[in-house]
């Protein structure tokens, strides 16, 4: 076994690898860029080596620097994590030539599965079912349109070198095809330096189901079963689970067998993932093979008890797998939520900044009224850390395991409730919304889930009765604490609580307060024949989390004091809640509603990024749908189009300008 390994990665996956290495008694060397000096992984590693400036192209992707760091540290092997150099056969070969072990599959397997066109051919030869389409490269737009007509719309346009959901587009018509083909080619060139593009049939209403495989250098290959990753935005996964709620035993076995056959065909000898799209009828087609550790690997670890990083290290060291297919069983259910610095209320656009507040749920076993659940939280950052624009904006991977799927969903909802972030936009309310949806609970998933369930974007959910009670009780209790803290305890017991979502005046709820013998706050709801009992209140002015027990069930809400009330978020519900005396409430009802500023004549940058082009000039007449600006962020080009006809009144940015979210780019008259 190795005594020292180098980790050629950063963030949560570097932390994840260090944890296993430490448990195995292997010491770790972490390479890091400027931006990652002092990071959590940096603090945890036994040794660190600085390898350059923040952009990955000048640090994590420079092979010479990684090899040099291995030499200097005396490490015997390199774990590449995912992304960066993890699927680069040139890097794997280079290490081999230098006598350094690559903790991953052999270079031949990486190469064979490295691009989507070649791997699809391999899969077809190994008897794996593949998506119908055109196996060759497509050079011109005319050719693309012609092939698309042969395949039949809808058609998926894919960059052969693509990954991470980039370089993928669906075309429904010749016009879509012509535009999409050029866009995918351009995106592929900037993101992957390779503009090869191919077409395949778009499988309608599909689900993403993948098989985890594991091999060693002695010809043993097993399937560690399936994961479903259908909850995606921009073709990128956000919520994953294992096993898939779609599969029956026969389909599970058929997919596992095909995945193992493909792995065998390339002498696969590490952890890898064979991805499929599946129809609702359980038909399935090969998509691609990822020859690396997968982001969502923890859910597989939770249902099988196998540590995949440990297995990768053992296999790289030449050890024989200590178990066979028959030793593996699925135990319970696991769900992973990817917590991203991105704003779900604004189309999931990336958000950057300092994580000024970060409270994480406790790992390990918990109990909810519905049963036990286990929390695992793979995080790469700490409170106070910066989420920078240089890398993937993933903050953590929060996982919940329980004996049943319903238990895992409930556990995840609670773990999310115990997660608090501030300083950057984040998707926790969105993840919480999905856990609360009946469709998700019923397991009727599809890759179109987010579009189906949130057709006009995500705006949070409306409170159900329990959440309305939580909003009322939280605001009333905070109001009590504040008046007491002000040294001016009013003995008022009658209040009107106004709950407003968005720009409304708010729904009034009359309450009457009293304390019972055990010091619990009792709220009689006026006009309703019931009372709420709030106990174990854990909040004081300045805290962003309000914890208490409402009617015997604990909850946590995110709270903020604003000028005339409180902003409260519980799970996917957020509201402005005001606690007013009956007289003030009457006055409030007569106040005019503030109208939000009219932004309909402005084209604003939806995210921080770089202006690529503003192809309009002052005085120009623009028609609906015409491109007005192109912004690049996170290696993706975002085309901003006119939402109505108009004449350009002002242009406030030019190509090359860095812009912040909401910066005005173009103004119409
Ligand atoms: P998963 O199926 O594990 O989510 P993804 O394909 O989404 O895998 O990619 C996982 C990580 O690797 C992401 O951080 C993604 O940005 C990165 N990645 C994947 N493929 C590439 C690639 N070809 N070039 C750059 N980064 C990539
Ligand atoms: P990446 O390398 O970016 O992960 P994939 O080929 O794995 O690219 O595709 C990403 C996602 O796009 C899949 O998870 C699936 O949701 C969707 N997808 C890909 N190919 C098809 C297809 N032919 N039909 C329907 N959906 C597809
Ligand atoms: Mg994929």
Uncertain spans: none
CATH superfamily of the largest domain: ATP-grasp fold, B domain
Largest sheet: 9 strands, antiparallel
CATH topology of the largest domain: D-amino Acid Aminotransferase, Chain A, domain 1
Oligomer status: single chain
Number of strands: 39
How far apart the termini lie comes to 70 Å
- Taken from the alpha-carbon principal axes, the silhouette is globular
Brief characterization of the structure:
The protein is α+β, with helices and mostly antiparallel strands and 669 residues long. It is 27% helix and 33% strand.
Would you kindly provide a written description of the structure presented here, covering whatever features stand out?
With 669 residues, the protein is α+β, with helices and mostly antiparallel strands. The chain folds into six domains: 4-103, Rossmann fold; 111-127 and 208-330, ATP-grasp fold, B domain (D-amino Acid Aminotransferase, Chain A, domain 1), CATH 3.30.470; 132-201, Dna Ligase, domain 1 (2-Layer Sandwich), CATH 3.30.1490; 332-451, D-amino Acid Aminotransferase, Chain A, domain 1, CATH 3.30.470; 465-588, Glycoprotein, Type 4 Pilin (2-Layer Sandwich), CATH 3.30.700; 602-668, RNA polymerase II/Efflux pump adaptor protein, barrel-sandwich hybrid domain (OB fold (Dihydrolipoamide Acetyltransferase, E2P), Beta Barrel). Helices cover 27% and strands 33% of the residues. The chain has a nine-stranded antiparallel sheet, sandwiched between helices. Helix 7 crosses helix 8. The longest helix is centred in the C-terminal third of the chain and has 21 residues, at 465-485. It is globular, with a radius of gyration of 27 Å. The site of one adenosine-5'-diphosphate (ADP) has 14 residues, from strand 6 and strand 11. This is propionyl-CoA carboxylase. Keywords: ATP-binding, Biotin, Ligase, Lipid degradation, Lipid metabolism, Magnesium, Manganese, Metal-binding, Nucleotide-binding. It catalyses: propanoyl-CoA + hydrogencarbonate + ATP = (S)-methylmalonyl-CoA + ADP + phosphate + H(+).
């Amino acid at each position: 076994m190795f005594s020292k390994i180098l980790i050629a990665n950063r963030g949560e996956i570097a932390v994840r690898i260090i944890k296993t290495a430490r448990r195995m008694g292997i010491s770790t060397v972490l390479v890091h860029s400027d931006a990652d000096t002092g990071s959590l992984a940096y603090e945890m590693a036994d040794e660190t080596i600085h390898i350059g400036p923040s952009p990955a192209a000048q640090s994590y992707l420079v092979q010479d620097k990684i090899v040099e760091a291995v030499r200097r540290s005396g490490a015997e092997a390199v774990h590449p994590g995912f992304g960066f150099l993890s699927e680069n056969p040139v890097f794997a070969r280079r290490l081999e030539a230098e006598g350094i072990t690559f903790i991953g599959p052999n270079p031949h397997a990486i190469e064979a599965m490295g691009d989507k066109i070649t791997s699809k051919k391999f899969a077809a030869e190994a008897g794996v079912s593949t998506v119908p389409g055109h196996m060759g490269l497509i050079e011109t737009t005319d050719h693309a349109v012609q092939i698309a007509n042969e395949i039949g719309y809808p058609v998926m346009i894919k960059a052969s070198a693509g990954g991470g959901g980039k370089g993928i587009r669906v075309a429904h018509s010749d016009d879509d095809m012509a535009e999409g083909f050029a866009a995918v080619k351009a995106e592929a060139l900037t993101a992957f330096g390779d503009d090869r593009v191919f077409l395949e049939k778009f499988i309608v209403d599909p689900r993403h189901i993948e098989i985890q495989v594991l091999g060693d250098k002695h010809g043993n290959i097993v399937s560690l079963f399936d994961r479903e990753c259908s909850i995606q935005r921009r073709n990128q996964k956000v919520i994953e689970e294992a096993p898939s709620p779609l599969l029956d035993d026969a389909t599970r076995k058929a997919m596992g067998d095909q995945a193992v056959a493909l792995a065998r065909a390339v002498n696969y000898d590490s952890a890898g993932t064979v991805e499929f799209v599946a129809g609702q009828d359980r038909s399935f087609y090969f998509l691609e093979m990822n020859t690396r550790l997968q982001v969502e690997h923890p859910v597989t670890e939770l249902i099988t008890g196998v540590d995949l990083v440990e297995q990768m290290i053992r296999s790289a060291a030449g050890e024989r797998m200590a178990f066979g297919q028959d030793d593996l069983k699925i135990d319970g259910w696991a769900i992973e939520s990817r917590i991203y610095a991105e704003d779900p209320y604004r189309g999931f656009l990336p958000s950057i900044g300092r994580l000024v507040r970060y409270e994480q749920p406790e790992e390990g076993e918990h109990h909810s009224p519905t049963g036990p659940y286990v929390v695992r939280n793979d995080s790469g950052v700490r409170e106070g850390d910066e989420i920078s624009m240089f890398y993937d904006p993933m903050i953590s991977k929060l996982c919940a395991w329980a004996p049943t799927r319903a238990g895992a969903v409930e556990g995840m909802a609670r773990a999310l409730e115990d997660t608090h972030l501030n300083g950057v936009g984040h998707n926790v309310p969105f993840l919480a919304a999905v856990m609360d949806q009946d469709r998700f609970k019923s397991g009727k998933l599809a890759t179109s889930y987010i579009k189906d369930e949130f057709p006009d974007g995500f705006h949070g959910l409306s409170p159900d009765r329990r959440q309305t009670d939580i909003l009322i009780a939280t605001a009333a209790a905070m109001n009590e604490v504040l008046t007491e803290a002000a040294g001016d305890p009013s003995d008022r017991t009658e209040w009107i609580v106004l709950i407003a979502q968005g720009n409304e005046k708010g729904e009034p709820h009359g309450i009457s307060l009293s304390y019972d013998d055990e010091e619990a706050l009792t709220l009689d709801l006026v006009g309703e024949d019931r009372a709420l009992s709030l106990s174990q209140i854990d909040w004081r002015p300045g805290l962003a989390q309000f914890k208490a027990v409402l009617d015997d069930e604990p909850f946590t809400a995110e709270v903020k004091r604003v000028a005339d009330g409180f902003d409260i978020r519980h799970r996917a519900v957020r509201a402005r809640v005001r606690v007013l005396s009956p007289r003030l409430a009457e006055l409030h009802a007569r106040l005019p509603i503030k109208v939000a500023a009219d932004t309909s004549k402005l084209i604003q940058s939806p995210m921080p990024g770089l202006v690529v082009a503003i192809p309009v000039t002052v005085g120009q007449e623009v028609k609906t749908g015409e491109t007005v600006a192109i912004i690049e962020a996170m290696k993706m080009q975002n085309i901003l189009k006119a939402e109505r006809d108009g004449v350009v009144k002002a242009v406030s940015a030019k190509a090359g300008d860095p812009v912040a979210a909401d910066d005005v780019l173009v103004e119409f008259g």
